[in-house]
Amino acid sequence: MLSFEHQFATLPEPLWVACQPTPVAQPSLIAFNDALGAQLGMQTRPDDATLAQWFSGNQLPPSAEPRALGYAGHQFGNFVPQLGDGRALLLGEVVNQQGERRDVQLKGSGRTPFSRGGDGRAPLGPVLREYLVGEFMAAVGVPTTRALAAVSTGERVVRQMAEPGAVLTRVASSHIRVGTFQFAAVRRDESALKALADHVIARHYPEAANADDPYLALLEAVTARQAALVARWMSLGFIHGVMNTDNCSIAGETIDYGPCAFMEQFDPQKVYSSIDQGGRYAFDNQPGIAQWNLARFAETLLPLMRVEGDAAVEQATEVLRGFTARFGAEQRRLHADKLGLAPESDRAVALMEALEIQMHQGRMDMTATFDALTHYAQVLSADTSAHSQKEALLALTTQPAGLTAWLADWENAQQASQQSERLDAMRHANPVVIPRNHRIQEVIDAAVEGDFAPFHTLLAAVTQPFDESEEARRLAAPATESEQVLRTFCGT
Ligand code: AMP
Ligand code: MG
User: Fold this and answer.
1) Does ligand 1 have an atom closer than 6 angstroms to the CB of 237?
2) 278-286 contacts: CB < 8 A, separation 24 or more?
3) Could you tell me if the CB of 86 is within 6 A of ligand 1?
4) Which of 46, 94, 235, 253 is the most exposed place for a label (fewest CB within 10 A)?
């Protein structure tokens, strides 16, 4: 049974507002994450009908106390002083079996005082997308919110067209965002701001409490988590798509999967989101944007810092500058893993830069390239004939001469490092299956027609992303020209 606590509710209003979900017509369970449920203390699985009642919000689980959380945010660079949970409700916190506090939230559960013009609902498509991509991220070890349940509502929501509605139950280290701090700061509510910061330190960064200046230490800790997170994203070709400050988690998890996508053909300037017309959140811009978001976070913390005025600004700026070095160090480590080189290898940086040029110029699929390179490394180390693996790799590029030259350099570097120890790390840095855009679209198209089998098949594959079965290989294949999905939509 879920046993909810309500620490966030000890923080002052208006950081939260009590609010009930709006019942839905006909809740029906699409998916429930048994393993995550067990981690949260649900030792026996309630029947589907009960789960559908709970996780649609029609009849909340015992001890849940629904609240909408307030937050502000910079959306595409423009400040909006009041956003907040317009269609989400925090049911409470559960301390999991590892002793970690986790938020459990309904998304799509109806209007709240923060809904502005919105209907408080979520269409089925984005709910399934968030479920698939979030669970994939968890499977490859990228910090992320998790999906506990998806329930269809039996109601339609009207977006571009009328679509089936759904509710996602999401689990997070917390739903506190940079925008939550901005919400308190813009109201000049210093006591709410301090209570929030102290809550975050106790909950996420307890070591900061012992620092000379806990709030500066908090900024440093969040900066480190965000730098590591964005490096992880990019190592998989992930483009978040809406890195607004309200979608930037203080705990350093990936949150709010909207028009996100994994890029296929490598292109540093790649954008998928239909609403990102200026390319603000393009693939290569993500570290700079994370740093910009952290600067907005730093601004909110200045009034709490031990030193005042220019000295506080200087200290905070110094911490923010540190983002670049942290991001670079994390990226070097990840790149070495992806290339099967030792972490201390001085060749990884140049080799990765050169491979990125090859992937870009040769229109190579990023995931398939690293998967094929991993196979090639495996056969090279086994000293068997590597001919067909090399051919498979060269088949991915339109520029085989350039890639052949690069491979010669890489093979040299490989031989210089302890290959056998590196192969395992290389495999784990290079998933076989990712949730490809066209596969997600297929799943959504079928689900809208009432067929959830493709969703369950894809979910099973992306949560075993290193599996090499035939089914995995089928789902791993890049989109053909006609299958490609080049635009993704928020669909909120
Ligand atoms: P998102 O794009 O999902 O990150 O949401 C941005 C803001 O819009 C948040 O404040 C959401 O709560 C709000 N929002 C998004 N969709 C809806 C909706 N259907 N009804 C009410 N508020 C919404
Ligand atoms: Mg959001």
Assistant:
1) no
2) 278/76, 280/76, 280/77, 281/239, 281/240, 281/241, 281/242, 281/243, 282/239, 283/234, 283/237, 283/239, 286/230, 286/233, 286/234, 286/239, 286/240, 286/243
3) yes
4) 46
